[in-house]
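Lab notebook, bench 4. Still working through the backlog of constructs that have no structural model yet. Next entry is a single chain of 296 residues. Request: give me the structure tokens for it.
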Amino acid sequence: DARAAISVALDGSVLLHSVKHKEGKTKPRPFSTAAAFLGVARKRGAAPSAALNQPLPLSTDTWKDEVARSASESQAMNAQAQLSTQRNAVAELAKQLQGLLQANNSAPDIEKMDRDEFVIDLTRRDATVEANKAQAAKVRSENQANDAVRDLVTTRIRHQCVDTMEVQAQEVHALQKAHCIVANFPIRKLDGKEAAKTDRLKRLRVLELRQLRHAGVVGSNVWPGRRNEIPDDISWIVNEGQLAPRIDVVASLKESKAESKKKGGEGGEEKPAAAAKGEKDDATEDGEEDAHEGEE
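Model written out:
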């Protein structure tokens, strides 16, 4: 153990070499370990040579074990000392904080501080602030993306459903009566082709009204006798109580055509060409006027 060197020969002789002390070095302890080892060695000297190959039992620890144990104990003591120092420092800070809080509670209202202003862990506070800023930026970017999508959808709906209407659909709900609603009549905006057609119909109607006035019709905007006429292919709206409606329009048209042909065949006499031509012109004019009135 750096204080003595011991060797045992096969013939049972034991050699003990002592290490002299040098100046400036720690003095070696007494040879307690060497003496104990020497006693065991003498017992082994009388043993058979075959038993000498077995390891020599020691009654005490070696110098390496003592050094490791001493280092471990020293590290444990240092760690305990540091832990005690840190605990004392934390206790001192807690004591100061409690004193500041008590002083703040007893101070006037104008001098009182908020609890958040008593911050001790500045590093943790800065880290928390940075994390909150990053989270806020993330949430802000997500909200902006969602708002952009909603704005795009809203713009498209407005362009297709609101901006295309000249008069938007609106409803008035009664306050004192449930399910009492009055709605207006929405009007769609006309495109260029439809606007040109509407303007042409208006001009035709103006010309028709001038013809009425020129023909001497006063007090009415319809040609005389026109409002009392009922077309053959109309089964409702006009004289609704007299004619039963037909659901199958195609069958109604076929029946009206068959009746017209039947009436034409039963007449037997042909009308003069001039009379037929005049009736055709009247029917054409009546059809154009009906079209003007319907489009108006």
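Notes after review: The helical segments are 32-45, 63-106, 122-162, 192-214, 249-267, 273-295. The first strand starts at residue 4 and ends at 8. Flag for follow-up if needed.
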